[in-house]
Every structure is written in structure tokens, then in C-alpha cells.
Amino acid sequence: MTETTAEEPMEEAVAALVKCLVWDLDDTLWQGTLLEDGEVVLPDEVRKVVIELDSRGILQSVSSRNDHEHAWARLEALGIAEYFVLPEIGWGAKSEAVRKIADRLGFALTTIAFIDDRPAERAEVAFHLPEVRCYPAEQVLALPELTEFTPATSTVDSRRRRQMYQAGFRREAERAAAPGPDEEFLRSLDLRMRIGRATGEELSRVEELTLRTSQMNATGVHYPDAVLRGLIADPGHEVLVVTLADRFGPHGAVGVLLLERHPGLWHLKLLATSCRVVAYGAGATLLNWLADTAARAGVHLVADFRATERNRMMEIAYRFSGFEEASCPCTVGLEPAAVQPGLQRLHLAPQPREVSTTMSLDAPDLGTRERDGGATTPS
Q1: Number of DSSP helices (H) and strands (E) in the chain, helices first
Q2: Three-class DSSP labels, 8-46
Q3: In sequence order, which residues have a C-beta less than 8 Å from that of residue 199 and are 6 or more positions away?
Q4: How far apart are the C-alpha atoms of 283 and 279, rounded to whole Å?
Q5: What would the pLDDT profile of 73-123 be if each residue is shown by its tens digit?
Q6: Assign residue 21 a region: left if phi > 0, alpha if psi is -120 to 50, beta otherwise?
Q7: CB burial readout 120-136, b (16+ within 10 A) else e
Q8: Residues 81, 70: contact at Cβ < 8 Å?
Q9: Is the separation of the CB atoms in 81 and 72 below 8 Å?
Q10: Which residues contact 215 (CB under 8 A, 6 or more apart)?
Q11: Which run of H or E residues covers position 306?
């Protein structure tokens, strides 16, 4: 099992947290073997574990050697089918089932856990997927006490994470069936983005985003609660939280921006967005809005970027938005990038631009420091 410490880089620390637990069914989730016993029993203590992990924002799925219709009907009869996403119930190798679940969720294998009563099944998964953490069925009741199943924060979004993913699967299904170009489908979603100045109550959502997001985190940096509280109180900084909703429901908090003001320059020290909303153009909309706002304020933009093993998509987003490595007198007051290993400074002299053609946007006026003021930016 992979072990990490608090001193390790953010990507490895994230890997210590389980984002999805894949359950075996027979003699693991329930007592008995469905094909042999007909009737199986779900102990109340196991039901409580499922509900507790769900409340912590840990997704749960199934990999079981069973007839799919029969097993799923039993889960429905037991009243817990809703807690499991993307079940893989059939007769193939369990390692392949676990891999399919991780790929469909877009999760690194280091964030996946697997629990099964049979040592041979755990060994098969461990051999083919050594990054996946495997647990014997005897440990079911102890899972909520383990560090890797205990996120540091509990937020509105984490408590409804499963519902947001399930809504996402419905969006994907409708998108696959929709005729016409993607832009037309995106308009049909009635996408609504809100950018707001973070409050003390929202800090846990910001911290969670910097912890969970690695593919779309521009620097790979995690900002702890105490640091964020200091930045919120600092008139030289903006800490912005981005939420998204559409006709299927809320996507929750999908982005965070950390901006430092300098004369003639806004320094984008952190941009992190959820990979779940990349396909909806959320990242491009954010960067277009920031560039348009900076242009209207008459300032340049400088964005920090540090390449990691997983954030190539973020670099592409910056480059596509016009950021490039270039020297400019506006950066004179910044700490040299060389002080921080691997850090790049990407520069943009922005011009007014169209923010989005597929979503509406509600955002604050960054020309002021009014905490409760906001202006709607038409799209």
C-alpha cells in the first residue's frame, strides 16, 4: 500500500486519499453468495459504512462476479443501489473492472481502493494494478477510521459529490445522443457560472479544490486554510471561487483563482479547475473573463505555471488563451521565478474579448474591493 507524509508534494499527498472504493458483493458487502443462497443479508453496520463514506464525498462502485441484472436488483431491493456508480458486474477479471471504473471517472489509480473477501481476487488486482490499495472484507467496519478514508475537509460539494457525478453521467449520455455541433449542445444546457470572492465559510471548498485537483492545477500547490484566511483579509489579494450549474443541477465549486494586485499588473498565482468541467469550456471561460477584465482595467496579466506529471492540460489552456513566456517591465516588482524551482511566468498583454458564447456569467468587479458587490458580465 502506498504511504505518504504531510511533507511530500501535493500530488503524492492527494494520492493518499481514496476518491473511489470498489466493493465486491458476495461475502463482502453482503453476507452470503447470491447465486448459491438466493437470499443475502446486508448487515446494518455495513450499510452505515456505505452511507458514511458517501457523506465524506468518497465515491463507491462495484466489481462482482455475478449476473448483472440479478445482483443489481438485489442492491435495489436492499435500498443501497443509489450509492454505487458505474458498477462492473459480470464474469471478467476484477482488475479490468477496476481499471474501467477508474478510467470512466478520470481518477488516478492511486486514488482507487478495492475490497474483497477472497485473497486470490485481491492478489489479481494488486498484480495488475499495483497502485490500487486492496483491503480484506474483515476490514469493512474499520474503513471510516482509516486516514485514507478521512478527508481533511467536509463541504457542501463533498457531501453531494455522488449526486453531481451521477448528473454528469446523464449529461454525457444526452451529449452522446445529441445531433449537431458541441456548441449547440452546450447552449442547450443553460450553463451558469458564478465567480465570487471567497468568504470564510467557503474556504474549505477552496482548500478541497487545491487538494483534489491535479490535472488542472497550474502550479501543483496546495494552500492550507490558515494561508487562505490571511489572503482573504489582504486587500492586495483576490481569492475567487467559481461555481457552475446547468439544467441538470449544480456542478458545485469547480474553480479557484488567487490573484495578487500590483501597479499595472495582476499576478495570477494559482488557477485550479475541476477536470469534470473541462468539456464544458469552464477553464476557457475563466481565462477569457480574466483577460477581458484585466484589459478593461488597463493592466497586464502574469500567470504562474509549474509543470507536473499531470497538468499538461493547464499549460495548453494558458497557451491557447494567449499567455506566453516573455519579458516585460511590468514584472519588475515580482519575486524572480528562479527563486521557486520549476516555476514559469507566463505573460499576457490582454485585449477586450468575448467571454463565452455558451454560458452566462455572474462575476464581481475586480476594479473595486467591495466584498459584497458584484456585476453581471454579459456573455
Answers
A1: 13, 13
A2: CCHHHHHHCCCCEEEECCECCCEECCHHHHCCCECCHHH
A3: 232
A4: 9
A5: 999 999 999 999 999 999 999 999 999 999 989 888 999 999 999 999 999
A6: beta
A7: ebbebbbeebeebbbbe
A8: no
A9: yes
A10: 106, 275, 310, 311, 313, 314
A11: strand 300-306
Give the Cα separation of 355 and 378 in Å (integer): 8
The grid coordinates listed for 63 are 466489481
Distance CA 322, CA 183 (A): 22
Cβ-contact 225, 231 below 8 angstroms = no
| Grid cell for residue 108 | 488516478
- Specify the amino acid at residue 301: L
Question: pLDDT for 243-284, tens place per residue?
Answer: 899 998 888 888 889 999 999 999 999 888 887 788 888 889
Global pTM reads 0.67
Positive or negative: CA dihedral 198, 200, 204, 207: positive
Cβ–Cβ < 8 Å for 85, 164:
no
Identity of the amino acid at 171: R
SS3 of residue 110 by DSSP: helix
Question: What span, in angstroms and rounded, lies between the C-alpha atoms of 14 and 4?
Answer: 9
Q: Is the dihedral of CA 62, 63, 69, 73 positive or negative?
A: negative
